[in-house]
Amino acid sequence: MLEELFRGLLQCIWAFLGSLCFGIVFNIRGKNLFYSAFGGFVAWVAYLLCGIVVPEEIVQYFVASVVISIYSESMAVYRKTPVTVFIVLGMVPLVPGGSIFYTMQHLIMGEYQLSYKVGVYTFAIAGAIAMGILIASFLVQLFKFSITNINQKKHKKEEKDNGKAL
């Protein structure tokens, strides 16, 4: 149990460091570099925690992408920075690079059936990540719109009430 916890923590630290290195390559500076790399940490924590509850790997990728999308949207507002700065680095640990490699390896080796199987699985992971980003971004934008709309109605009502009082 303790060994699994240590292994998971180590994986999360590597996810952070991998995202940090990509942030350096992408020329992200200052605190945004740390917050963006921390997004990779958050994504991998979400992936591992979801794995405890749901053993299906595609669901884990979906949940992790939803979590990192919400994190990225909130950090974009907090840091007054475009959301892509946070979401790109946060998704680095989730990229199915190994699956893409094995798909191509099987294809080159002439193992077409296995290549097809791994390729479909890779596309399923990519689709789960894309759907997670899409759904989370939509929900965050809907929430922002609702809050703005409520505040505007409240402000108009206050102006109307102030006009009657005079």
UniProtKB/TrEMBL annotation:
Superkingdom, natural source: Bacteria
GO biological processes: succinate transport
A GO cellular-component term linked to this record: plasma membrane
A family per Pfam: ThrE_2
Domain (Threonine/Serine exporter ThrE) ranges: 11-138
Segments crossing the lipid bilayer: 6-26, 33-54, 60-78, 85-108, 120-143
Entry annotated with the keyword Membrane: yes
Cellular location(s): Cell membrane
Mode of membrane association: Multi-pass membrane protein
UniProt keyword Mitochondrion, yes or no: no
Keyword vocabulary terms for this entry: Cell inner membrane, Cell membrane, Membrane, Transmembrane, Transmembrane helix
Protein name, UniProt field: Threonine/serine exporter
Lineage: Bacteria, Bacillati, Bacillota, Clostridia, Lachnospirales
